[in-house]
Amino acid sequence: MSGAARALFIREWRIARRIGGGASIGAVFFLILVTIMPFALGPDLNLLARIGPAILWIAALLATLLGLDRLFQADADDGSLDVLVNGSLPLELVVLVKCAAHWASSALPLVIVSPLFGLMLAMEARPLALVALSLVVGTPALTMIGAIGAALTVSLRRGGLLMAVLVLPLAIPVLIFGVSAASAASGGAAPFLTPFLMLCAISLGAIGLAPFAAAAALRHVRE
Amino acid sequence: MRLSAKNIAIERGGRSILAGLSFEARAGAALILTGPNGAGKSTLLRAIAGFLPLAAGAFAFEGGAQEASIGEQAHYLGHADALKGALTAGENLAFWAGALGGDSSSGVWRGALARLGLAHVADFPVRALSAGQKRRVALARLLVAPRPIWLLDEPTSALDAAAQGLFAAIMRERLAAGGLIVAATHAPLGLEGAETLRLGASLGVAA
Predict the structure, then answer these.
(1) Which of A43, A115, A126, B66 has the most Cβ atoms closer than 10 angstroms to its Cβ?
(2) CA neighbours within 13 Å on the CB side: how many for A195?
(3) Domain count within chain B
(4) Residues of A in contact with B79 (CB under 8 A)
(5) Closest residue of A to B85, CA-based?
(6) Could you count the other beta carbons within 10 Å of the beta carbon of residue A113?
């Protein structure tokens, strides 16, 4: 069973990294969102530094959603999902492994480049570190919640938009605790630890529960 | 080993596709599903694989593993090839071998590709292959993981005459080894002694 999980992870990773895989598109989209913010808000460095964590978090949220709509749809279109359903891995683990590979190939690069992009928002070293830290523990929740939406919309031709509509409201708690943890060092209202621990709890809960929800949705929608 | 269906009924969207269908397939013999377009051949195969709920009746598989469902003991080959264009033929097969509980070492999938006459394209990305070659890579999936039942939906579509002969030989070998094949097809598959189940349009009647 661990062999099957490893084979699936390696396959997903390879597909994401190759041409047309879309892993790097997320990071480029993230860069563009962060870049256009100062044009809209004006070159007020104090303002940018203060709302920088929020900008980075919203950009990360949207960039994470960008690649998620194809998470199961690509496999449904080419028949792979039919074979995976009867494979040696339970469908719940298939969902978990696919999400892990998706997180490693598209969300982790966002986390790594976020301090660099934060520099463009005139953020200091400590807020930058807190943003990266909160993104590391918060993005798994975004990926797992997004996977539920991706599973629900797997049979719809243009399901990407519907998926965003379904998923974004569910991502609000992640955003609230993520931004309040990240902005603790740049004039935030709350201390760092409390929202950070809540963020960890949401991520762990999502990792534990979302595979069951997404697998149930996949089984039901395909019938 | 014996795969049997008793009084199967399948409904899709409130419309009856198959009703009152019974059949039996034995190890070592192929069961060929024929019938006009829309007769329910693909639906029946998907139902055996466990993808569709049954309105009535049940499938039974005797002689297989106790805990696994029929689908988990079957290879399902549908219209789609279940291949990723960005990966090479070898990478696709190595993945399916691992995911289906087979042996993912390169000797196994290289042997399977060679068996279908594709040894030279093992390291090509699948998107660069022709439709017939893709189909042959999909057929090689049947050989990289051992499963007792093969459910084949138009297995020889897009194949040239030589490849059809090659696959007929593979199926005969599989049957001689005690495999069980249920195939939906319009073209003859070149299997002697295969039983035929003819499905009528919108009314499943076992012939």
Answers:
(1) A115
(2) 24
(3) 1
(4) 79
(5) A15
(6) 15
